[in-house]
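Q: Second attempt. The first request was missing the SMILES, so the protein and zinc ion are both included now.
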Amino acid sequence: MKYVVLIGDGMSDYPISELNNKTPLEVADKPNIDELTKKGKTGQLKTVPDNLEPGSDVANMSILGYDPQKYYTGRGPLETGSMGVRTTADEVSFRCNLITEENGKLADFNAGHISSKEATILIDHLNKEFSKDFILDKIGDGKFYSGISYRHLFVKKGKNLSDLKTTPPHDIVGEKIDKYTEWNGEDLVIKDIMNYSKEVLKNHPVNKERIANDKKSANMVWLWGQGLRPSLPNFTDIYGLNGSVITGVDLLKGIGVFAGLTNINVPGATGYFDTDYKAKGKYAANSLKDNDFLFVHIEAPDEAGHTGDIEEKLKAIERIDKYVLGQIRDKINDYDRYKIAILPDHATPIDIRTHTRDLVPLTIYSSLEEDFADDVKIYTEKTLVNGSLGIDKAHKLVNRMIN
Ligand SMILES: [Zn+2]
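A: Got both inputs this time. The predicted holo structure:
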């Protein structure tokens, strides 16, 4: 038996006036998703427990079968895992965004989607400057690790820092920075690091060139999502399946690492609109032969939600359908026993540009159970409310598919 879980990050939405009060899922042309919905069973999943933030970390951890109430320790540590950085029990991992600060406000949470090449130069420079004695005296040790585009990491000793109240930068675009860094005592060190990063970055040649080219300056780091390393039971031990994760996002790779799954790196997978859908679909389809379980994640619809870009969201859904699911279906038909689950991890509605904790629409297609399909014919937020699977907690999904 082969199992595929396909995640269109942030794909579900609310009705949008520009789309005649329809959602992108209602408008997009997605013949593959709809066909599997018609021949499969549908329902809704609760991917985010009430006491946790509706982030891709919590939601995807749930979908992979790990109850986040039990296993979630923060976003930073998951991404640290994905980069092969091993932390000790007393080290705290922060997510570190390169952001654009303007007049004391957080102007852009991704510094104009800075390229990985430019970002790496800036992160190297930060490490160099932060290892100077006068800074070490003030903040102690700590190290930046460069990731993809604006998404990086910072690791520092100090268990207590894991409890600090930090804020996701994508939730406070346009707001005064001071409001979100009102810390005291030992925690002030994090504010010092963020403030000193401004000094280090503002006149760097990379930023001078970006400004000269009308691009946003990556003139500050924003630390958030921190935590101690998690310990997840091994996926293969629990389910008896060997499996892989395909994603362009470090966070998701990290969940894979901690779960003991293999990360398949796809050239051209960017975690953004320009991700190479064809390559992702091809790698996913080709890796079926070596994997019983495949977790395929595409970030682009979520990014479209955050930027409020209706066109890009429609395009992202259509490309997932055509290039990713289409290629998977072409290959998976070689096996007569398989199941495919299709769902977003959470909604990222265009109108509010951030994640919500709404139930997400779920289709489970099984090649063995076409005769038991429910009455739902197309994949939308509204239609799947009536699905035969009802409502369930996301961390039960994998178990449900397998048993
Ligand atoms: Zn998001």
